[in-house]
Amino acid sequence: MGQTIGNPLSWLAQNVGGAGTHLGESIEQVKSPTNDIPQIRRLAMQDLVQVLKLGLQDFASCRSDAMFLVFFYPLIGIALIMSAMAEQLFPLMVPMILGFAIIGPVAALGLYEMSARREAGFKPRWSDAFSVLRSTAFLPILILSLFLAALFITWLVAANLIYIHTLGPDQPENMRSFLTEVFTSRSGHIMALSGMFVGALFAVTAFAVSFISFPMLLDRRAGLPVAVVTSLRAVRLNFKITMIWGVIIGASLALAAIPFFVGMIIVVPVLGHATWHLYRRAVV
Questions:
Q1: DSSP 14
Q2: How many CB atoms neighbour CB 175 within 10 A?
Q3: CA angle (257 as vertex; 204, 275 as ends), nearest 5
Q4: What are the CA-CA distances from residue 50 to residues 142, 171, 270, 273 (Å)?
Q5: Which of 42, 70, 171, 173 has its CA 20 to 30 A from that of 18?
Q6: pLDDT single digits (tens) 50-103
Q7: pTM of the model
Q8: What φ, ψ does residue 40 adopt, rounded to 5°?
Q9: 22 near 135, Cβ under 8 Å?
Q10: DSSP string, 129-194
């Protein structure tokens, strides 16, 4: 019988089937087989410069594959903004955009795998991104992803409550009236400052939990508790550097979202690849 040419949908179906096969092993990975925390290195600004260079090199090496993986990101962003405008939920538009930083690590999972394969000397392909579906780390990664999704929803609820207690409870008639209130009224200033403070708390929480966890779960049989604790310790040991990295991620995503989220097709892959290399430098 002649061979047929595969396509993304058939590949995805095969990997989903593989995920069921590995589910039993994946359940074991939810708990850590050992409580030993790997050694963590101290990072410097030079490390951030180097990982960004490596991220750009990975992106240049597998540009079309990486862009294919995150192509849905602009579409999701546009869909969220259009739905917010249709429902006149203008106060939630900025929180939705900033919320990408919370769920960003989930979208970068495939990019971590591609960087790992390139680091090992293989030619990465977009299909490598779906190997997580048949990995023993599938379930712990799913649990961590659901946690970030819940954090994103909680952030939107918190942002809405801040608006209600400052400029609300009525929704603004249009975007112009909303922006006018934000920039010219005392209540608007309070809302903006409160939102920035609370949003920063959510972003730091998501970053501290997922900074090392996702790439570590893909890289070794660590288990979810050890991966999360390692991530928290890495942030604590390198607090200044990791916070600068978090600011770089947040600022890059914000700028990429301005031209209808199109910039994310480039920014997300570069940051995803760079995060993998930063994990490799941070954890022995």
A1: H
A2: 12
A3: 45
A4: 30, 46, 12, 12
A5: 70
A6: 999 999 988 888 765 566 666 666 676 677 677 666 656 777 777 887 777 788
A7: 0.78
A8: -115, 130
A9: yes
A10: GGGGGGSTTHHHHHHHHHHHHHHHHHHHHHHHHHHHTTT-SSPPSSHHHHHHHHHHSHHHHHHHHH
